[in-house]
Amino acid sequence: MSPRCVCMRYADANPDHPFCVTKKGEDLYRAWRIEQFKRNAEVFDVRTYNDYTGYGTGELCAFDEVISTEEKDIWMIWAHIEGMARFLSQDNDRWYHIDDSETNSKRVMLIGTAILTAIDRLIDSGLFVNDSEIRNIGFVLGLLLEFATEFEGTCPANEDGWRIVVIRKLGQHGVKIRATKRSELVAESVSSDAIEEKEDGDGDGDREEKDIELPNRLPDFVEAYKPLPYSPEYTNIDPVIRSWAVWDWKQELQEYTKHHGIGGKIGGDHYDLTVNRSDDESASDDWIEESSDEEEKPVGMPD
Questions:
Q1: Structural element, H or E, at residue 73
Q2: Residues 7, 24: Cα–Cα separation, whole Å
């Protein structure tokens, strides 16, 4: 049975099935997938630059509704994490080839903070346990660990370091990964890396102690979301290495939006090919060029 195959039967009718999601989580995933298709140039037979669909997918990852300080319903929060896990485990190659790996890495960092914040809410509610009423914690977190591992090579400043914290919390509360065999291997690999770093004296554990000793210093995530200046000296500038001793969803969302949003916000429909735009908008956004079966003529050749 595949963890990505949803039969839409109630989980109680399939007690032996290892994978399940809430209806709300699946609805969110399907809604995001529809929005992704609306930003897929190939679906609409539109010729544009190679990164268009990747940027459109990134536009959808405005998970500002995932965690809300006003949201008291833990089931609603978890449904967003479910939908996010299902969505992020599909078509990751859409992101790989965009020419903005830095924003990709910061997006991975923000997603990690959303996950850790949701786990904190589960712990506070007494639901982050192996026999939790929320049956798919191990499944969902397994998919998210797989997702982050796909971006391991594009996170030079420890933007994906939240994986170690997730593994640590799973162990502390006796929650087991129950997704694919690959996610289990990913969890083992991340755990091994964490042990090696701690033994070397430069791992996440040491950074935690440093943060505790200096509680009044500016959290490093404030600086970590800032993009590096684009200059010939780019390679000589060291990025701020993110530690994962603390996280703050509200503040990190603000930092991400400020540095990586468009016009002071994230999300929107800039890459939605189904949106009717004015002539002025179309002229300013020259990314749409309708395909044609006719042979292209050299510039200046009359019809």
A1: none
A2: 15
